[in-house]
């Protein structure tokens, strides 16, 4: 009798559930104010204060990328797009926290970098056999989708982060309380 999965599949499932669940929870904070979050309005005000404009649209995009990408990663569905979207959101968060150094206890970018790396790694590696992608015959998890999803996300993220950086460096009043409301 053969098993439907091996250690690699089980490891990918655990990674997807852990990283995807954390990402989805952070997205729910932004979108709905769940788990102690501030919802679209509060997160939008924060995003606006740190140079991500328009704030409400930025909060919505970040929340959807985190919640949607995280939930899809946890399910193992549309893994290239889900991982790329979540990684892009985490790159935006890491850019915000970079002035504080690496370690998260000082407000640094360690945590979003780790989540973003996990999401991008899952996009590249795939979800394993214990996933909806596998159950559905990988219809939304094709090899060609990986570089396309990552390239599109990288281009959009680079544009958004560059625009924010220009706003912050040309108007020092743009720097708000970094990290206080931005949960990742």
Account of the protein in words:
Residues 1-24 form the signal peptide. Keywords: Cell membrane, Membrane, Signal, Transmembrane, Transmembrane helix. It comes from Streptomyces doudnae. By secondary structure, the chain is mostly helical. Helix content is 67%, strand content 0%. The protein has one domain. The protein is built from seven helices and no strands. Helix 1 crosses helix 2 and helix 2 (39-49) crosses helix 3.
Can you give me a brief rundown of this structure?
With 184 residues, the chain is mainly alpha-helical. It has 7 helices and no strands. It is found in: Cell membrane.
Descriptors for this entry?
single chain; 184 residues; mainly alpha; elongated; transmembrane helix; DoxX; membrane; transmembrane
Main sheet, how many strands, which sense, barrel? none
Report the β-strand fraction as a percent range: under 5%
H-E order:
HHHHHHH
Question: What's the tally of helices?
Answer: 7
Helical proportion? Answer: 55-70%
Number of domains: 1
Distance between the termini: 44 Å
The shape is elongated
Structural class: mainly alpha
Radius of gyration: 17 Å
Q: Pick out the low-confidence regions.
A: 174-184
- Total E-strand runs: 0
What's the rounded overall pLDDT mean? 92
Family: Belongs to the DoxX family.
Protein name: DoxX family protein
Subcellular location: Cell membrane
Pfam family, one: DoxX
